[in-house]
Amino acid sequence: MSNHKNQHKLWDFPWAYVESFLIYSGILITGFLMEIFFPLKTTTGIIFPYNLFILIAIVALIISFHLFFKNQVFVKWLGSVHAAIMAIIFIFLMVMIMGIIPQIKTESTIIQLLGLNSITTHWAFLLILLLFLISLGLTTFKRILNFNLYNIGFILNHLGLFIALSCGILGAGDTQRLSLELNEHEPNWRAYNNKTNEPIELDFAIYLKDFKVDEFQPKLAFVDNKNGKIIHNDGKNLYLINQGENYYFNDYEIVINKFLASSAKVGDDYQPVYDLGAPPSAQLTIKNTKTNKTVSGWISSGSFIHQYESLKIDENVSVVMTIPEVKKFTSEVSILQKNGERIETSIEVNNPFSYKGWKIYQLSYDEERGKWSTKSVLELVTDPWLKYVYIGIFMMIAGAIYMFWVGAKFKKENNHDVD
Amino acid sequence: MTWINFEAYYIAIVVCWSLSLILLGFSYRTKKLFNYSFICAILGTLALIWFDVELWMELHRPPMRTLGETRLWYATFLPIIGFIVYLKWKYKWFLAYCLAMGILFLTINYLHPETYSKTLMPALQSPWFIPHVLVYLFAYALLAASSFVAIKSLYSFYKNTFSENDLKLADNLVYIGFAFLTLGLLFGALWAKEAWGNYWTWDPKEIWAFLTWMMYLLYIHYRFLHSTKTKEALIILTIAFIVLLICWFGVNYLPVASTSVHTYTQS
Q1: Does pLDDT of A411 surpass 70?
Q2: Where are the beta strands (DSSP E) in A301-357?
Q3: Where are the alpha helices (H) located in A101-252, listed in sequence order?
Q4: Which residues have CB under 8 Å from A42's CB, separation 6+?
Q5: B241 or B68, higher pLDDT
Q6: Chain B CB contacts of A108 below 8 Å
Q7: Residue B131: which H helix or E strand, with range?
Q8: From the CB of residue B202, how many other CB atoms can be counted at a distance below 10 Å?
Q9: If A137 and its partner were Cys, which of A62, A261, A391, B94 is the partner (CB 3.0–4.6 Å)?
Q10: Residues of chain A neighbouring B142 (CB-CB closer than 8 A)
Q11: What is the pLDDT of residues A43-67, one digit of tens each?
Q12: What is the helix (H) or strand (E) element at residue A265, kind and residue range?
């Protein structure tokens, strides 16, 4: 076995690791040189129909490689496991750079020059991906031609990855993301492109009937009087304030006597009030179990109108109420169409609405006003290539289920060692 | 302080599993002790599943949000994988490893108690949340087990006691683990599309999940190509697990963490 290896000269058939490494290194270096001299400044990506042309060119190349140059050593290499392994290693390296160096503007000239903070549009990354796609496509194409039942898992995984990757990368230029700002009781049709900030007039308007925020109960936090910092659980996972509950913290026993979700201060007390900006409040009794000293009083988280109120337990510690966390926010909207028809719907996080090729997402709102926000920001996304990416993804899901079902057994069918 | 008495469960489970480990050790000499060991292991695991269920009901949300909560599921899945592997291939040492890891992860949770916040941000309130996390942690547990097999096998290489069967076990674990890893990754993509309108954004956690996926992909292709170069395959498997650990815990400490939606910040 080792004799055979020693006799193998570089670039003799078949190409193995050394040749694979040299080819991918060459592409990597070319890519870096291109990045230094002609970096891709585009923010939009390749748009239709050019991306489709590229995809057709790649597929045509793969098919013609197989039909006309099947016996060329380069084409044989492209479809080999050695090429696949080297592609995995080089893609791994490029993506790892992305996983370590933040992909944002930087002061460092070396990172800037080598394009290490913009890997997704880096020539080296794109060229490596291109060769990898050709390699993957060729391997898949060969298997499809020799179709048999044992190949189903292979084809689902490899073809699925090919479709998802090629359509995902090439289709990125055709995705559009717009944000649309809405105020309650007003229609709006003028959206802004998230990347370029240019205004875009939609051929429909969205009218915000109501914007609603559901909140969790506010939480109880212990604060160090000296530095104002939360001393409890590193500020994480504080206690929710529920009427009638009691908690223990160090030597303190806290009883929540009363909780008002919406209230206002009247004299020394809080009373239920449902005005704009009326904050939650709670009445507590805190007992120091060591000294038996008891303190009673109100706390309130405050709001954008009203001040917060804390309760001092002793010289060192106070209790405060945190601003309630948001559970759900929903825009009740009507979509007004040109023909005068209206579509009534509600949009919330994780529950977008599909309309005329757009997916409409709940993006944000006036966070300072919180649940009293009358403003809602929606995001409109269109991605014409999505269905093809999904075809790829669902093939891979089917492939993964097949793999789980069959396990490592299917290897026995194809177990051939090239060494 | 928690609403739920984790301490009591912790002690019960650790006692069961430790007893199981001790009996398992002696069962190499006295065979029938293994049955008792197996029963103890199952009792401990049932107690942990009971705790998971109780926690889930008490919180009114799936307990899968924080690192501590993911450790809990990991500790649940490992012994289950240990049972299945034992029933199928009769590896006692593998069951021992699973129980020991389970004890380790529960102990970390015991030493860093959480108050289990009941709040869950809107983006996480999705039907994809539970399948995404459970499938991932099941994959992590399987792949961790495969890496343990790899390390044990590397050790037996030096002692010249290496057996091909161990590598077959690693292969089986990797194939099943990789299938789940793929599902977790793709479920995450489908969910992200529903929540943020993008199925892939090169978020740091996504990047490292992708790298983890690539490493196991490398292992599978390498094993396919060279079924006899076992030592190199074992080294790849060990490195793959390091990448997995960076993905699971390490990302939070990398300079890129601030740009991630996956840092498990606890409000």
Answers
A1: no
A2: 311-312, 317-321, 326-337, 342-348, 353-355
A3: 109-114, 123-145, 152-171
A4: A121
A5: B241
A6: none
A7: helix B129-158
A8: 16
A9: A62
A10: none
A11: 667 889 999 999 999 999 999 999 9
A12: strand A263-266
Q: Specify burial of residue A193 (Cβ count, 10 A radius: 0-12, 13-18, 19+).
A: middle
Whether residue B176 and residue A236 make contact (CB cut-off 8 A), yes or no, is no
How many residue pairs bridge chain A and chain B with CB atoms within 8 Å of each other?
Answer: 161
Burial profile A64-94: b = 16 or more Cβ within 10 angstroms, e = fewer? ebbeeeeeeeebbbbbbbbbbbbbbbbbbbb
Give the amino acid at B43.
Answer: L
Distance, in Å, from the CA atom of B176 to the CA atom of B180, rounded to the nearest integer, reads 6
Q: Which of A237, A327, A352 sits opposite B117 (nearest CB)?
A: A237
Counting Cβ atoms within 10 Å, is residue B107 exposed (0-12), middle (13-18) or buried (19+)?
middle
Predicted complex ipTM: 0.88
pLDDT tens for B97-153 read 899 999 999 998 888 776 567 778 888 888 888 889 989 999 999 999 999 899 989
Whether B237 and B170 have beta carbons less than 8 Å apart is answered as yes
In this predicted structure, the answer to whether residue A230 has a pLDDT above a threshold of 90 is no
DSSP strand pairing (A294-300 vs A311-312): unpaired
Q: What is the pLDDT of residues B168-225, one digit of tens each?
A: 889 989 998 999 999 999 999 999 999 888 999 999 999 999 999 999 999 999 999 9
Angle at A326 between CA A325 and CA A329, to 5 degrees: 175
